[in-house]
Design a protein that fits this description.
This protein is of the alpha/beta class. It has 15 helices and 14 strands. It folds into two domains: 134 residues, Aspartate Aminotransferase, domain 1; 232 residues, Type I PLP-dependent aspartate aminotransferase-like (Major domain) (Aspartate Aminotransferase, domain 2, 3-Layer(aba) Sandwich), CATH 3.40.640.10.
């Protein structure tokens, strides 16, 4: 059989395109604040990970422009060789201090951070234990590792303990999302810390959707639970609250030093560009200076979650600015409802299997600190009308 036969027989996406309800890889024009232009008309953006609303902040744009003019468009190499500039070191130092860790290492993307950290730390005869709803980058990091990868049911501390008990004598790393990106729920960090201590396991929290969102100062899920010192490794990305692109891992200096010299996704990949590094530093400064952005974001999330639930929508276990609206009517109906909402001026993200189990199809909504009250009222009004018309509520 021809290797490309599976490509030829893949017709599902083209069938959805023909129906005019294909939601992916669509161009979005530059947008300001919480309003985007989509196919020539303005829509309220509730499908962005720009949680603090900093991607258009003048200080962030100015910092990126200055770095571009000073350093050029690229570092032209990997961090390991010629691709490190002083801005990389400055960001690592500032971020480690912000997160309360000894050291930090910056990668080109958050995805690469997970690939590099997991594959370099977990070797043969060692375990990496993950939640079944962990992000795809964690899954792929486990595949690159030589260690075994038992998984526990989402949030199930009893099953996790059973895995830990059966492997009490083996070196172990437990990896979990701090904020789960589809459901918007939090990891049971107190329970995880307790079990990891009891069974001598190390704990890594991927807080891609927690940094800038959770905790009094936006330091993430560990700060939210008061457990920063109990988490061995904090991992995250700059493509959400930090208004840029890149990833990082923070922890004890000797661990970061080891990862720096063993992570293939760092050593053999071009480094984070100067403009992205400078933009991240500017965003971090704003976060430190304006913690009220975090408070505003939390108030908006609470308001919208309560509003959706009052209307009768199923928001699942959301505790964050990620608020899923469960549809559960299959892929085609989810796409149809997405398009109806879009036509009403509200941009959401449809999520279907394999990102969620069959029957759990949803519309992922997410909020920014810069959303205005009138926009939020409009979103709820549109959802109420469409939800009733389409039989969801």
């Amino acid at each position: 059989m021809d290797l490309f036969e599976k490509c030829h027989s893949f017709t599902q996406a083209r069938e959805v395109m023909a129906l005019g309800i294909y939601p992916y890889f669509r161009s979005i024009d530059p947008f300001h604040g919480s309003i985007a232009k989509f196919e020539g008309r303005e829509v309220i953006m509730i499908g962005s990970n720009n949680y603090l609303g900093l991607t258009q902040h003048p200080r962030v744009i100015s910092a990126a422009r200055d770095a571009l003019e000073h350093y050029g468009s690229s570092c032209t190499g990997s961090r390991f060789l010629n691709g490190t500039i002083e801005l990389h070191h400055e960001l690592e130092h500032r971020l480690a201090r912000f997160l309360g860790k000894e050291a930090c290492l910056v990668f080109s993307t958050g995805f690469q951070a997970n690939l590099g950290v997991i594959s370099s730390l977990v070797d043969r005869n060692e375990l990496i234990i993950t939640d079944r709803e962990d992000h795809a980058s964690i899954v792929d990091g486990c595949r690159l590792s030589f260690g075994k990868n038992p998984k526990y049911r989402h949030g199930d501390m009893d099953e996790l303990e059973e895995i830990l008990r059966k492997n009490a004598e083996r070196p172990k790393l437990v990896v979990v999302d701090g904020v789960f990106s589809m459901g918007g729920d939090l990891a049971n960090l107190p329970g995880l810390v307790k079990l990891c201590k009891a069974y001598d396991a190390r704990l890594m929290v991927d807080d891609a959707h927690g940094i800038g969102v959770m905790g009094a100062h936006g330091r993430g899920t560990a700060e939210h639970f008061g457990l920063t010192d109990e988490v061995d490794l904090l991992l995250g990305t700059f493509s959400k609250s930090m208004a840029s692109l890149g990833g990082f891992v923070a922890g004890d200096d000797y661990v970061i030093h080891y990862v720096k010299h063993h992570a293939r996704s760092l050593i053999f990949s071009a480094s984070m560009p100067p403009a992205s590094v400078a933009a991240t530093i500017a965003a971090l400064e704003i976060l430190e200076e304006e913690p009220e952005r975090v408070q505003r974001l939390r108030a908006i999330a609470d308001r919208m979650r309560e509003g959706f639930r009052a209307l009768g929508f199923d928001t699942m276990q959301s505790q964050t600015p990620i608020i899923p609206i469960k549809i559960g009517l299959g892929m085609m109906r989810t796409f149809q409802i997405w398009k109806i909402l879009l036509n009403e001026g509200v941009f959401t993200n449809p999520v279907i299997p394999p990102a969620v189990p069959p029957g759990d199809e949803l519309l992922r909504t997410s909020y920014m600190a810069t959303h205005e009250d009138e926009q939020l009222d409009r979103v709820l009004e549109v959802f109420a009308r469409v939800g009733k018309a389409e039989g969801i509520i």
